[in-house]
Amino acid sequence: MKVRTPTQKQVLARQELATLLVSDSTRFDVDEAVKDGAKRCKRTGDLKTSRRAASLFHRPAGARGEPKRLGFVGLGDAKNLDTETLRRAAAVAQQQAERVGVDLFEVLCCADELKAVEAFDAGAAIAEGLLLGAYRYQPPRKEKPKKRSAQTAVVRLFDGKQGADWRKAFERGLKFGSIGGEATIFARDIENMAGNHATPSRLADEAKGFAGTNLKVKILEEKDMEKLGMYSLLGVSRGSVQPAKLILMDYAPRGYKKTVCVVGKGLTFDSGGISIKPSGKMDEMRYDMCGGGAVLGLFHAIAAGALKDVGPKTRIVGIVPSSENMPDADAQKPGDVVTAMDGTTIEVLNTDAEGRLILADALAYAVKNYEPDSIVDLATLTGAVVVALGHEVAGVMGNDDEHIEDLIDAGDAADEPNWQLPLWPAHRDQMKSNFADLKNIQSPAHGNGTIAGAAFLSYFVGDTTWAHIDIAGTAWGGRAKDYYRSGAAGTAVRMLLRWCRGLS
To answer: Which of 49, 146, 259, 298 has the most CB atoms lying inside 10 A of its own CB?
Structure first.
């Protein structure tokens, strides 16, 4: 799927399909090529402008100077327009075009009707909706999938009273949203792959493809991690024949002033290890690498130039600890004690609380090697966050409220919301062990499973500004919403992009 703006040679009247995004106050006089047809459609009484309402009309016999078909997707009240409404409307427009079976279609919108939303944000939301609405995971099958229609969308904006500056900002947003949408699709694809396809080695190979100007990629192998004393991560990997990887992606623009690290859990399949999970829905544990998928998606976007127009003077380091968690004869056992890279000893009371173990070494590595100004980690860490917040909101915890607020703001801008949960000294105390420095789970009597995961991780960041985002609810299993159907959501890619954009 491609999203672009019209060329000078592209005549609207010749198109097979033009779809207007219309509000309750649409005047239908945006362009001569559609004005008469749109007014004719309105007179039938079948044209609806309520949110997501879709309608389609064909050009009457003998009519000239307008597209063969006119489609409409409602935006509702223009005064209350928001980015989520725009994103969903664009996805509906794409799906309407796909049902019709055209290869190329136009999406028409008027700046005057979109002005309740910032121009950049409006462009980004429309591009994201078109791309994500077109997404279908293509599983490996004997027969090749048929070529799909509606794979090119031309977005035509009519300025109205908003002027050239509004248009320029809108088109910048359209480009940014296209890059972010494609990066989210990349993340969805690797997250949806079967565990025997999306192995740690596969994730490492994907990351290598991002290398280029200002972006370096390095992969640490198990022997490298052993030299560094990363036995918390390596302990999880002991039961698997798939070698663990520590994936390092380093975007360092010229003249950068500060460094941030983004760490994502890349557990490509989680059986639970010796503390094995129930068999029901164990196949969904392919999604246990969605934190790593989000970080890889972020760097897919950075490599595509998502930050070029703002040029943030910030070094962005992506770290993805990746392994499998399997029950082999050599797998670690409940009660084992392992030592993390920073010397912290950990009693492994439950081998299914493995994500925090691989993140512990990744966080310690980040602090020691990059001395970052701030860190954010993302992980499908606990089922408890689904109990607390459901599938539509991620939980965020950390040691700095301003840092957390910045991430919440970025999530709001991307319509990927986060909700702050407390992280107090009492929670950290729950993670102390009688047989080591820490234990990897707290007593069931304490509850607060999501906070306990963050409390454990907090020991490995020292005084560095840090936040942990638990995406176990939002990574998959959410409600369908036009630009997401099922499977992996590619969650947090767009949020991270917004956050990185705000670092300038």
So the answer is: 298
